[in-house]
Fold:
Amino acid sequence: MIPAFDRPDATRNASPYLYGKESQAVAAVLDSGHYGHTDVTEAFERGVARFLDVPDAIAVSSGTAALHTALVAAGVGPGCEVIVPSMTFCATIQAILACGANPRFVEVDPGTLCVCPEDVLNNLSKTTTAVMPVLFGGRAVDLAPIQDLLAERHITVIEDAAHAFGSCLDSQRVGADPAVITCFSFGPIKNLTCGQGGMIVPRTPDEAQKIRDLRMLGVVESAAERATSTAYQVKTAGFRYQMSSINAAIGNAQLPHFAGTEADRKLLWRTYRDSLNHVDDVTLVDVDVDHSVPHLCVVRVPHRDQVFRHMKSQGIAVGVHYPPNHLQPAFAPWSRQLPMTEEISRQIMSLPFHQHMDGTDAHRVVTALEQALAAVGAGR
Ligand SMILES: *Cc1c(COP(=O)(O)O)cnc(C)c1O
Structure:
């Protein structure tokens, strides 16, 4: 196959990876003339459900739409509080605001950038209705130690698993825990891409139905049923959040190759880990690579801003995931002091991480990191 763009290397922080059949799959849908939620979308839902070994999965137009819909389905609305780490993509917080609910920002463990159960417990209030752990870098978050307590208080756990498609907790894929709602993103640079898209794994068949109603403008009838009827019924408030068959076709073409995705991402992360082992002053954020399909390779470094600029000047596309949300102007009304997150946010830097990269690229990045650290006088 002739690549549509030059092979992205360490000059790109992240990149989609195509296995070769995606363009044909999209062309077939375009030729079909049906671009809405179709049997192609439903085939993708079934494919993902089979892959995760879960009874059902519901496709939506993005990861953000998945989070928003899951929150609404769980009854989260105005006056409700949702516990969420500040250390996440702003989409997580926007989904909470879209419900009219209040984010309760919490700290993360500096070693994993994930929330810990004790911290969730310490932040519960009378108005807590949901907890939204973020599976940072692909790492599963295990809230089992507090799951019973949360259930007693009717608090729903909605996982932001945008980074974690394919990752495991114990021997199950993330999404397979029937006690939680799991939301995936299939955006351009996620572990599996639809171009744009998301998926919700519901807890029960009732919840699945509620989510299916919400994602299609509250309309009860399927497109096929509407075509044969003079009327349709709008049952509830709802959103235009269905996944287009054009996007689903890309996902259908990607899914059979996921074993390759998993192997390549684990190998690249381990290559970075082994190479970084020899570098002083650098701490790798642990994604639990044996159980995860890594999405990011994040390090904590001294003099981060200088190191970042030095590496950029060498053509290495480092990034920062993420500037903390509790300090964003849009989220100021919910801001509180989170000293750990603020300290971490001055140290984190994401190394280029995508499947076009090989071991040589990773070693080049680590060499450039060593040079940057030396140039800014770290460790002295
Ligand atoms: C990508 C991402 C989202 C949003 O997914 P979209 O498909 O881009 O809407 C939410 N949370 C996290 C942590 C993400 O990385």
Observations:
- Residues 62-64, 88-89, 91-92, 134, 160, 162-163, 185, 187, 198 surround pyridoxal-5'-phosphate (CB under 6 Å).
- The longest helix spans residues 258-276.
- The mean pLDDT is 96.
- The longest strand covers residues 81-85.
